[in-house]
Amino acid sequence: MIASLGVSHVTVLHKPKVAFFSTGDELKPLGQPLEDGQIYDSNRYTLFGMLTQLDVDVLDMGVIPDQPEAVSQAFAQAAAMADVVITSGGVSVGEADYIKPTLRTMGNINFWKIAMKPGRPLTFGQLGDAHFFGLPGNPVAVMVTFLQFVKPALQQLSGEVFKSPLRINAICQNDIRKRPGRTEYQRGVYTQLDDGTFLVELTGRQGSGILSSMSEANCLIVLGDEQGGVVRGDNVLIELLD
C-alpha cells in the first residue's frame, strides 16, 4: 500500500527490546546432573519461545541466583538495555524471594497479586524507563500470565492494534471444582463435531507445575471470577491458543 502511493520513507516504531531472566538457586542448566532440591530451568526456554513469536528483540540474561546483590545488578543491567524486563520466580513472600523488594527499591510497583489461578503472585511495575513484569516461578503460571498480560502489552508497544484472543463456547466433558472469587484458566483440548458443536476436555491434572497440562493443550478453559464449579455437560468459555 505504501509503495503504491509512491512513498519511499515512513516513520515507524522500533521493536521493543525485552530482557528476561530466571531467578532461583534451585535452577540447574541443561546437561548437568540434578542434586537434591534442584530442577532444570524450563521457564527461560518457555519465555524465549513465546517472545520469538512476537515482533520484539530478545535479550536472554540467564539465571540469577537468589542473592539481593545479584538481583539488583541484573535489574540495573536489564533496565539499561531493554524497554521491557521480564523475570520468572522470586515474586512470592519466601525468604529468598527478592524480586518484589528490589523492585520497590529500584523502581515502583503498580500492582502485586491478582485474583487468578494460576498466576496469583504476578507483579507489574516500572524499572527506570522500562516496564517490568515479575512472573511466578511455576511453569504453567508463567505461560498463562504471559498470554493474558505480557503478550498484549508487547503488542501494544509494537504499535499493533490489540485484538482480544478468540473465545468461543464449548461443552465441557469434565467436572471441574472451583470457588467463586477468582478467574481460573484450566488447560483443555477442544474438538469440533460435524454439526459445528465444540467439545472440550481437560488435559489431565491441572497443577501449575505440570508442564504437560499446557504442552498438550490447544485452548484455555476460562472460568470467570463469579463462576463456581462446572458439571460435565455445562457450557464453558474457551480461549483458543495459537
Describe this structure in words.
This protein has 242 residues and is an alpha/beta fold. The chain is 22% helix and 31% strand. Helix 1 runs parallel beside helix 4 (139-157) and helix 2 crosses helix 3 (99-106). The model has no long low-confidence stretch (mean pLDDT 94).
Radius of gyration: 20 Å
What portion of residues belong to β-strands?
25-35%
Instruction: Catalogue the unreliable spans.
Output: none
The chain-level structural class is alpha/beta
Report the span from N to C terminus. 28 Å
Report the biggest beta sheet as strand number plus sense, adding barrel if it closes. 6 strands, mixed
Q: Strand sequence of the main sheet, in spatial order?
A: 4-1-5-9-8-6
What is the H/E order?
EEEHEHEHEEEEHEEEHEE
Shape: globular
Number of continuous helical runs: 5
State the helical fraction.
10-25%
Indicate the mean pLDDT. 94
Number of strand elements = 14
Question: TL;DR?
Answer:
The two termini are 28 Å apart. The chain is built from five helices and 14 strands. By secondary structure, the protein is an alpha/beta fold.
